[in-house]
C-alpha cells in the first residue's frame, strides 16, 4: 500500500529528506546493517548540492545553475522631468512637425503675395505661424480670425491640416497621460559586479546559518573571516581563475578583493534573521553599498526592499554570472546498476521531482530577510510609490514658461501695432 505522500511531505523538513524517503522507502525494509549499505554504496543518497568537480568515480545529474547577483541604490538616476513632454515623439518627429508648420505658413504667405496686390493688408508671417501652431495645440480660434489669415482657395488644405493636427495631438495626449501614471525610467551608474570593485563599493554579504554566528551577530561581535559567508567556497574558486575571459577576470578581481579584505572595511556580514540591518545599511544611497547574494534570493529580496515609504528605489545588477556553479546530484558509481541513480533519473525525467520542488518552495518559504520580517506581499500600492510631485511640479514650471513666452509675444504685438499706427 502506497503512503499518503502529502502527509509524508508535511512531516519532512526539507526536500532532500522527502526525496530520500521516496527513493529508499521500498528498498530498505529488510536491510538492518548500515555498514553493508555504506560498503556497497548502492543505496546511499547524499542529496542535492553544488558540484565541486572533484576527482572520483561518480555520476552526476545536473538540475540547475546557481549564480550570484547584487542589489544597490547608489548612483541610480531617473530621466529628467521635461522628457515627459517629448518622449512620445523622437527628435526627428518634432523637427518634421516644425518644418511642416513653417512650410504651411510659407505656402499661405506666398498665396497672399500672389493674389493680393496691396501687401500692406496681407497678414504678417507671425500671424500665419501662430494660427498654424494653435491648431496643432488645439487652441480654439474664431472663424473670423482664421478667414482673415487663411485664403479661401487654401481652405481644403487648411482643413486637412486641422484633421492631421487633431490626430497628432490626440495621440500625444494619450501617450502623455500614460507616461504621467508610469514611473520614471531609472538608469544605474553600474551594471556588472566588477563595476562595483572599481567604484570602491562596500559589500554586504550573508553569513552562514550556524548557531555560533547567530550568537556573535546578536551580541554585536563582527565575524572576521570571509569563510563564514554563505558562498565562501565559490569566492575561493573564482579567485583562483587562470583563464583569459574578460568577464571571469573581472569576477576574479572582485573575489580577490573580498578574500583579501577585512570585515568592516571592504565587506560586512549580515544575518537573515535581522532584516532591519539590511535596509538600514543599504538605504544609505549616498554611500556605496551593495548587497550580494544568490540570484534566486535577490529576486525574492528586491520587492521586499522596494516596498518602502521613503521613496528609495533599489535595482538589481544586470549580470547573473558571478560565482556561477552547477547544482544537482552526485551519485557514486557501483559495479552493478546503482539503485539510487536509476530512481533519481526516473523522478526527474517524469517531472515528479520538479513538481515536489515547486510544492516545497510554496509550503516551505526561504528563511531569508522577507521571511523574518513577516513580509509576503507589498504593503504599499503602486500608486503610493509613484513620484507624482516631481512630474506635476515640472508641468507647472513649463506652464509658467509658456505664460512668460506669451507675455513677450503680446508685448511684441502691441509694439508692432503701435509702430504701424504711427
Please tell me about this protein's structure.
The chain is an alpha+beta fold and 422 residues long. The protein has three domains: 211 residues, no CATH class; 103 residues; 36 residues. Helices cover 51% and strands 12% of the residues. It is built from 17 helices and nine strands. The longest helix is centred in the C-terminal third of the chain and has 34 residues. It is elongated.
**Taking Cα atoms only, what radius of gyration do you get, to the nearest Å?**
35 Å
- Count of helical regions: 17
Q: How would you classify the helix and strand content by structural class?
A: alpha+beta
For the largest beta-sheet, the strand count, sense and barrel status come to: 7 strands, mixed
Relative helix content: 40-55%
Keywords: Membrane, Transmembrane, Transmembrane helix
Transmembrane segments: 92-110, 398-419
Short description:
This protein is of the alpha+beta class. Helices cover 51% and strands 12% of the residues. The protein has helices at 5-11, 15-24, 34-40, 91-115, 125-136, 143-149, 155-181, 193-199, 211-218, 232-239, 246-260, 275-282, 295-306, 339-349, 352-363, 369-372, 388-421, and strands at 48-50, 58-72, 76-78, 186-188, 202-206, 267-270, 289-294, 315-316, 322-332.
